[in-house]
Amino acid sequence: MSRKENLIVGLDIGTTKICAIVGEVSSEGIDIVGIGTHPSRGLRKGVVVNIESTVASIKKAVEEAELMAGCGISSVFAGIAGGHIKGLNSHGVIAVKDGEVKESDVKRVIDAARAVAIPMDREVLHILPQEFIIDDQDGIKQPIGMSGVRLEAKVHIVTGAATSAQNIVKCANQGGLDVNDIVLEQLASAEAVLSPDEKDLGVAIIDIGGGTSDIAIFIEGSIRHTAVLSLGGDHLTNDIAIGLRTPTDEAEKIKKKYSCAMSSMVGKDDTINVPSMGGRKPRTLSRQLLADIIEPRVEEIFSLVKNEITRSGYEDLLASGIVITGGSSLMDGMPELGEQIFNLPVRRGLPQGIGGLVDVVNSPIYATGVGLVIHGHTQPNKNRFKMGDENLFSKVTKRMKEWFNEYF
Fold first, then answer.
1. Pick from 205, 242, 201: which is nearest to 220 by CA?
2. How far is CA 123 from the centre of its chain?
3. Which fold would CATH assign to domain 196-232+297-348?
């Protein structure tokens, strides 16, 4: 198959599924031309625990995407998640040399802001600018060319376990793929489902995946807080399997087909067929019982997210409310229960701003994959990471500095 130069591929390596999405850059933006998904067998809570199984799943998903797009895939933008992800805000100050801010000044102030103590086993994944301040004038997004003697930068730094990112790159490389970039998954999802107005007014995105729930908060157009909770849809599946005494695979099917996050929304006469363990006869149970099992777990996830938002200090600034995305957000009653717990408007996040196979990817489960494609489109430099002599994260740091030079 041919390899087209204007293709961008997002690889969402999730706990429950591997998803490869192929986007083609056109004059009007990005057209989605290929999608491939395959159950994920080698991850737990967003982290690779079995390289061989993960590589096999990646290959299957990529092959499916290649067939649909009619092209060969050689490089991808990969997502990263997991409980090891930590975000912190930092602040840097420098003196402007010639009375006018130049690119070199921006580079120096970013270096000053990222000079924070990070443990040896952790590395910087993203340095995301929030705002610049020149001589006490705040809210500046583009400082180059402005006059002043003192330049400050506020940035959000995302760090992760070095080994987890290296394992993701290793899995992709063994699957025959180069990795152009590693992107925090909730940042990718935000690219796909949030509007600029929502980011300006203040919004929190909650990406509820299989093994983790990823949080990102945007205020005044900039990222302010990120966090990852090790709770997700797999916990709902396990609760159903135990509560209804049914195999885990059947519990997953029941969750997708019949689950509801609010028992008050379920009709009293609704019933479901539940397969039994050990070859026993299937049983007919009330759908209300299923909702009674699910509701407390969803309440727990939302309550932990609310605690994290409160701890961040931005709880009162979310004028646009909450956007939920990820596979579990498809469940009936999720926005309604979320509005009760957060006391804010809640909506499902669907990928937007794309063309091509829009009807196929019009689901929260594809938010991260589409967001990775959009991220790849906005980042023109395509450095490829391979597991070799040079440390992966020295490349990441170098690439971040280059990105700031291009951006500013």
1. 201
2. 18
3. Nucleotidyltransferase; domain 5 (3.30.420)
